[in-house]
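Input.
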Amino acid sequence: MIHFRFLLIFSFVISWNSVNAVLFSDFLRPVSIVARKAIDRVTLPFPYSEVPSPTTRQAAFVYENFYTVLEDDAKKIGKKYAIVGTLRPCFFVGLRNDRIRKSVVFHKAAYSSLDSLVEIAKKELAIDGKAEKFLRGYIFSNRYTFYNYFPIDGKNTWRDLHQGKSQKEEMVFIKNFLISSFNISKVERLECRVFKNYLGHLASLSVLVDSTLELSSICLDREEIFGKCTRLGFEEDDVLEERYKRAQELRQIYFDDKLAPTYNSLPFERAPLHYFE
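Output.
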């Protein structure tokens, strides 16, 4: 039986009381050799990442309710590439100012504040009255089959947590909020997609993104982002041990002193790059 001590990291979901066990349950399952090989036969939302492993394991990791900034001219890998996941039903939100060659990417949960997202984007991307024509973005999530039906805390479904909105409706809500906040006149500059992920393969649940907002699908297990997975669980190599401990620190520092958040209420926090380099 697989020991799941380190699989906690795969959910990237902040735990509050009884919600925690259900949120994590989607990822607490064995990964077989067959499943690893099956990635070559599944349909993915984006081309599979061809970035070499040393790069992906140094990329910034954007956990739920965190963000990071990527720059074209950055020297460090963690400031040029990021992995955002897992995204079901959370949303990837990426915004870029082509004029300054810089992007900011967010891992948005139901409770993540859109006001906070806009405030951060305006600051990091130097968005003013003349910047809208240089602004573009991408919003993405995976369809969650039990979004409307499965009570995650014994009472509320994911739809309930999004104030009755479906995933598609939530995506439209985010898009319209950004269009209004940034005065985007050409709506096609803000692409949106909810991928119909019926099989739930890990490769479709996370994305690798570079500073230009080029998105690739990436499998956290196959690329050993958190270490090698064996029948006994994850091998505790340096990268796994470091990322696990730092993720726990992030959760304790930023979230443990907060009450269970409500919809669209919790400010984003910047993911410290040095934790993942």
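The chain has a mean pLDDT of 78.
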